[in-house]
Amino acid sequence: MAEFFAFDREAQEAxxxxxxxxxxxVASQTASDIARCMNxxxxxxxxxxxxxxxxxxxTMQRLPQYQPAAVVLAVVEKHCGKFExxx
Length: 87
What we know:
- By secondary structure, this protein is mainly α.
- Helix content is about 75%, strand content about 0%.
- It has one domain.
- The chain has helices at about 1-5, 10-30, 30-45, 50-60, 70-80.
């Protein structure tokens, strides 16, 4: 996590945005309800994306023991539901 916070804010936001986009690709193929939610929650209004990035960064600061990509996924799942996982 320390490496993530060594990046400037623009790079952090690019990482988060790319992660959300990749989660969206997976959702579009495996969980259409999550994909629709992500479109509403994140993609539909670019003006609010900054607030979503801030929420994710704040969560990363509170949970430094987790990988940044895992935190991005966790916040998406918090807002849009959990992906089914194979046991």
